[in-house]
């Protein structure tokens, strides 16, 4: 097991993707601090790990406040004597279009995803630097943070912000031997289970059958377990040279996302006035960049009747 002797914190790991990450880290030998806001959910997650022969301890607390970050890191050291891996997965959704989004809708999502990632990484990185043996920071992003998505102003802002912070942390933590990366998962969740487009995939997963190849290959869409292997890899010594990256995974697909780079550059002596831009912008810039994700039509055999 590649993570023997390592200690990991996984926020938001009571269920879903976070639970899959925690279970895989434990399967690879790490002792895991499980985190959830619900005590029974956290206890069940711990039991799923310990019943399989792993080591796990729960911290029941909402991610966001500095106090929770300190509690998570302190528990790792008090229980297992060290900290090597942090996976920031905790999150909530408050989806609605811009003109209907309240301050609370925005602030709640930013607080858990963005501030929660910041406070947990700040505390973990501080203690890892003091420990002096390097470490692994793995933050969970989203295609929404890369491309945007209708009705997710708050979530898109948080997930894009996480990628920006990770690139900065990769620079700041390099000398301490601490890597920082973002994982961009595409997997079956409670949300996708309600969408008719994914019905055939959800049905297959519920039956314990392989998802159709259209989902796994063409869309890069799979189960939570399909994502967990990448998290464990990035947590291992094998990934010591991987840092500052945004890596997508889902189903049968692995992707390395590019960093933002200019796709067109033009120069004009004296600068770009309004008149010059009006005359030349389209010709100089060329094709504009697309936004949002688009999905191909479902094959006929995967169509499901809608109510």
UniProtKB/TrEMBL annotation:
Q: Which family does it belong to?
A: Belongs to the short-chain dehydrogenases/reductases (SDR) family.
Q: Which organism is it from?
A: Microbacterium album
Q: What is this protein called?
A: Dehydrogenase
Q: Which UniProt keywords apply?
A: Oxidoreductase
- GO terms for MF: oxidoreductase activity
Q: Per the record's keyword annotation, is Cytoplasm included, yes or no?
A: no
Q: Which PANTHER family match?
A: DEHYDROGENASES, SHORT CHAIN (PTHR45024), SCP2 DOMAIN-CONTAINING PROTEIN (PTHR45024:SF2)
> Does the keyword Oxidoreductase belong to this entry?
yes
